[in-house]
Specification:
Distance between the termini: 45 Å
Number of helices: 12
Helix content: 25-40%
Shape: globular
Number of strands: 14
Strand content: 15-25%
Radius of gyration: 20 Å
Largest sheet: 7 strands, mixed
Amino acid sequence: MTRFLTASSSKAVQQATRTLHEWQPARQGLGVALVYGPVSLEDRLYHSKCPVEQRSVTALSGALKEIGVRWKVLDPCEPSFIPELAGYDAVLSNLHGPFGEDGRLQGLLDYIRMPYCGSGVAASAVAADKVLCKRVMESLGVPTPGWWVWSGGPVDWAGTAVMVKPPFGGSSVGMSLVRDRAALPLALADAARDEGDPVLVEDYVPGVPLTVGLLELPSGEVLVFPPLATEVTEADFYDADTKLDADSKGAVTVRAAELKPALLAETTGYATTLWDGMDLRGSARVDFVLTQAGQVYALEVNTTPGMSRDSNFAVGGAMVGLTHTDIVLAMLHEALARPPYDVPLPTPAFSSSTPTREAAVSP
């Protein structure tokens, strides 16, 4: 079982920071591929609308430069992506949603025996599939709002507000808060998109959004960041436009959640249960909602947390004394300290004449 540390474990956190800073000088010249590009709908949205200075890739690039590694941003939409990977020692992915966060990139990297930061194939796939993740939450005894799956056909409206969610992707893209029957068909169609995917319909639970970050330390222990509370001032819920904040309106406020000891233990306990139960590693963020009655419900698990300078994950790390660069160091350490691959596969040889296939996606 994993040993978890909290903000009260200040000596252990200080020791971990010293270990990382002592480990850093030997990483000079290490090759790190920072994978970023407009693959999923979520990433295309950020790529087209989010100011460069607010992007995770900008902050991650700064951290890698500060660490002193040799690094380059590799775009998975480019034909040279896979051959270029072979020139690096480890991968730090900043992809979200399908093909980046759902186990497919992780499977590729496993196959070519390339160390990478974060969770493996199975954990990534489970976390990225909102319906499957719901089932796992329930099997682990982690409370989550009631839900059902729409796969087309007539809709049985129960008369209460629901959140309609695409089964894959994050940042609330394609998500709708539906309060009446007339709005439900359009919300379902929007969430299903052209692929006709099943849609998650979740009971709407009003309350304060909470988020808990978890980071694996060099000791193998996992540090649980203090829960953060999010207050949205200009939207019905924490929607995609609010998270994007392309106009820098500051419509969301993030602060330390003021939870009583029993509720704090309960919330962090659910986060650690999901870490162990889903076999997460490296880093993760678990999102919750806290009702006015003091009940906490898990909403989703993110295996590739946003890493902009002001992201919830970075803010949570700062609350326990970790800089953004410290967090990236810990992620790299976990990737490179992982046991080496021992499967009998040949070293991949890439051809410069590898054909490419054009995907039918919107710009």
